[in-house]
Amino acid sequence: MKALVAPSYGPIDQLTIAELAKPAPGPGQILIKLRAAALNPLDVKLATGVMREMMPVSHPFVLGLDAAGTVEAVGEGVTRFTPGDEVVAFTHPVAGAVAEYTLALDGPEVVARPDGLDPVDAAALPVAAMTAAGIVEQAGLNSGDSLLVVGATGGVGSFVVQLAAQAGVRVVATAPPSDADYMRGLGAAATVDYTSGDTTEEALRHVPGGVDVAVDLINAGPALAGTAAAVKTGGLLISPAGGPPVFDREVRASYAHIEATNGLLQRIVEATASGRLRVEVSARFPFAEAQRAVVEFAGKHTRGKVVITF
């Protein structure tokens, strides 16, 4: 089979489509023939070696965590699916998804894809939407509370905005003027133009005294202090990247991670299929152009998701 691989840690321009052995499903595994796979920032970090201390990978390393496709074969003990079933999957840590075939564990990481959900939209869901759901749960917000989302137009951010707004939270989202209407369409009550002013000052103008919770999907480490300044004393800052445990003014910190808990991906898929959750796919690339897709994805901020099709 063909797959997009990193032969070693290094720059993404070394990525190549290589011929690898077609995997066979072991006990409790599902072999999926790909129809679409989505890109995530973690793919780039794993390929380049930025995450080698925390999440080392073996080489050749196949990129991709999000998959939508058709069940090709199942391993011993798998009874939920049979060949021909259409599925959505989070494939980490079993195999990479930007390949003609991939493996996934039989469990909450794989769910059936409804007929009304396009494979491209389905592939855009697992990492981004599950991460967003975990962040909103950690935030512990109630209807009427305020939330600042930094990086709101990206894959995770777009889902955080929607899920929080649907819970009655007043969402302030960072976005350039060209995306302001898009953010309001997802449920944001206000937007902050990070391209022309100070994000913290603008957020405090919308919510004097500071927001209850801020979610920063862009910054890490000491750089999170700027976002923390927009949070009220005793409030919470959440980020999927690392940083200090506390900030000035007793602002707490929580560092989110993706977790495919039982039923979560199923609920996300059903909500998207029914139209309650919106997916934004900003670019589609055929598999033959997968290397270019990653280079362009890594080189600029994208609205929503980038998906590779097969």
UniProtKB/TrEMBL annotation:
SUPFAM superfamilies: GroES-like, NAD(P)-binding Rossmann-fold domains. InterPro entries: ADH-like_N, Chloroplast_QOR, ER, GroES-like_sf, NAD(P)-bd_dom_sf. This is NADP-dependent oxidoreductase. SMART domains: PKS_ER. Pfam families: ADH_N, ADH_zinc_N_2. Residues 10-308 form the Enoyl reductase (ER) domain.
